[in-house]
Fold this sequence. Notes:
The chain is α/β, with parallel strands linked by helices and 554 residues long. It folds into 2 domains: 207 residues, Rossmann fold, CATH 3.40.50; 249 residues, Phosphofructokinase domain (Rossmann fold), CATH 3.40.50. Helices cover 44% and strands 16% of the residues. It contains 24 helices and 15 strands. Helix 4 packs across helix 21, helix 14 packs across helix 17 and helix 16 runs antiparallel to helix 17. The relative contact order is 0.17.
Amino acid sequence: MKELSPLQKERLNYNPKLPACLQGGVNKLVITEGEKTQSVANQKEISELFKNSYGMPTVTFSTSDNEDVKPAKNIGVILSGGQAPGGHNVIAGLYDALKQANPENKLYGFLGGPSGIIDGKYIELTDEIINAYRNTGGFDIIGSGRTKLETEDQFKKAWNVCQNLNITGIVIIGGDDSNTNAALLAEWFLEKKAGIQVIGCPKTIDGDLKNEQIEISFGFDTATKTYAELVGNIQRDANSAKKYWHFIKLMGRSASHVALEVALQTHPNVTLISEEVEAKQMSLADVVTTITKAVVNRSEMGKNFGIVLVPEGLIEFIPEIKSMISNLNDVLALIEDDADYMNAQTEVEKYEIIKNRLEPQNAEVYSSLPNMIKSQLLMDRDPHGNVQVSRIDTEKLLIAMVRERLTKMKEEGRYNGKFSDLAHFFGYEGRCAFPSNFDADYCYSLGFNAFALMNFGLTGYISSVRNLTAPAKDWVAGGIPLTMMMNMEKRHGEFKPVIKKALVEIDGPVFKYLQDHREEWAMEDCYLFPGAIQYFGPSEVADITTRTLQLEKN
């Protein structure tokens, strides 16, 4: 028998909290429709692409005394994209809701992500399986994958698999790309009159899948608390040793929500925010100046140590780097037809060929980068054909440039301090952590709510649970159309419908709080030490949610 840790044994017994309206079960729910919706942008294009699912209303649930038991149905569930704490609880909530609604209902888990529904790889989820994964981190109950559901052939194969299993509904648990796929699949099934519903659930630790109805994506709470614990530990070490500058890169390619939230929980000396860099048109030199200023000023106070937080996607937000990468993506898309490049014997030869293919201003930027960064920019692209910025050691690039700047200042007699550096990247450490009480409750509610949406015959919706700064019993459950969150973006050279990412609002209350405290945190040692995630104890410690959500709601 598999051995369990003491904490895992305790967490398996945790009973997640539900909104009051869901506590009576799915069969006693009443649905209320809100206003008709439209996409956040490109309304004409989106409405034409989603003729059968565009413009649907938002919905919310309330409870009644009447019970409506519907015939048995089979549902499929898919985990899509990168892992995020709480995914198992989404499946547990979905399973409990469908079994409570009708014990004859069945739940099939497709293995390895979206490819499972294409290839017909699945398991039937049972009490024994579900009970072994409640309140645990990871996606290992059925596995995940990054296969995109977007082609006619894929949709047909998925339909055949569903017909073989008599599946009438699919829940896709994923981020913005995965839920874009859910919207496309829902529209295709409606067009074919297949009788198969599709419901999404909002997952991503990056925190960039949100709006007024989706207040937070699941996993963000746990991941940021995990990273904040690590940053707090490093801050305590820096304040003890008093000799290292720690450059810490954090998850978040397209948005800086993770770095911002961790900063609010720990109060580091320097926090870079990608969206601010882009809005202010800061050059790479400007970013280096920001860090160098803090290093020099603290050195003059006898403090040759500090903490710098760096968002994973920072490099793509620096205007001259962004332009160069965009040009580089176009060049690399054609490079396999370039005989000179394919026959190059050394990395240096490849760098020179790439430089000659780039536009002059972009070639200059590319040439200025260390060879280590040049090499990382040439690695395999992501599924969208873009640079994989998580593989770029932005924190090491900044360290090298700050060190170079300080050396020059020392030669000019403008700096007499010591600069010793250490680089860190916190990413995988937070993706599969034991979910916090908040994420355990929220995810369970999202899954439970997803089946409620299906039970009312809805499709093309994403599960929405909001009012999240209140106690769980006061949360509001319902759903919003996936098309409501969409716009058109360029992918692989073509404009395609995608869910719009939510970036840090530099005029919003969360960033403003950081801005108001930056100078104090830079010079003074205002470090906070949040410690490990607490699962037991008073609600104000164990159930507390993110500073981001609190500031946004207050």
